[in-house]
Amino acid sequence: MTGPLGWLFDAQLVIAGQAVLWREVIGNLFGLASALGGMRRRVWAWPVGIVGNVLLFTVFLGGVFHTPQDRDLYGQAGRQVFFVAVAVYGWVRWRQTRRTGGEGAPAVVPRWAGVRGWIQLATIGVVGTVVFALVFRALGSWGPWADAWIFVGSFLATYGMARGWIEFWLIWIAVDAVGVPLLLSAGYYPSAVLYLVYAGVVSTGFVVWWRARGEGTPQQVTAAAGVDG
Asked: Per the UniProt record, which residue ranges are transmembrane (predicted)?
């Protein structure tokens, strides 16, 4: 890629002798901003997150786009695509809930997923991780089992956030616990550092949402529940 766009695409900085793409740094900062917006239940968290997803998609296909890391993490790249799809769903859902609640209403009312939700999350988490680990291993992904859990767990966490389930913060913590070692071993240092920052944000977010559970009017709670029941 040539010209100004090529320069922006390939721009790097050097940290401790290690070349790092600005796209990786900026993409993760957008992701952090989205997490902070989600903690505050702001609708803008979704479009901000989408920008970060698009940037990070190109970063984690290091071999394809010839990044300094030059390693393909198919799970990390693929989850950015799922993030965009789920983010559109969450964006629409939160906007509808806020309109239903009236002026000044929160975009979502935090609540527990319940037994039905837990079964759904656990089933998809286990089956999805096994299936995608086999797929990623066949594709030659770096650390296929860890990559598969990060892929599936991230999808579940984002879906849980869209539904207003408090458990989605705990899923993010589990994703971070696996993601940091994987990213360090693959050389994606800015992403690994941001994962550590995310761990602090999601821990705080869990407490904030737990304290806010069930707040709002009956109409808001019904809107947040959506198709449950």
From this structure: 20-37, 44-65, 115-136, 142-162, 192-210
Q: Which of the 8 DSSP states describes residue 17?
A: T
Residue 4 belongs to some domain of the structure: no
- Name the residue range of residue 60's domain: 11-212
Domain contains 20 = yes
Residue 73 Rama label (left phi>0; alpha psi -120 to 50; beta): beta
Asked if 70 contacts 87 with a C-beta cutoff of 8 angstroms, the reply is: no
Q: What is the pLDDT of residues 113-162, one digit of tens each?
A: 999 999 999 999 999 999 999 998 888 777 889 889 988 998 899 899 88
State the Cα–Cα distance between residues 225 and 229, nearest whole angstrom: 8
Q: What residue type is 11 in one-letter code?
A: A
Q: pTM, whole model, 2 decimals?
A: 0.72
Q: Which residue has the higher pLDDT, 11 or 35?
A: 35
Distance CA 8, CA 171 (A): 34
Return the axis-axis angle of helices 168-186 and 189-211, rounded to nearest 10°: 170
Domain count, the chain: 1
Give the torsion through C-alpha atoms of 143, 201, 41, 83, to 10 deg.
Answer: -10
Structure tokens at 147: 């990559």
Is residue 151 assigned to a domain? yes
Distance CA 65, CA 174 (A): 29
Q: Are strands 12-15 and 18-21 parallel, antiparallel or unpaired?
A: antiparallel
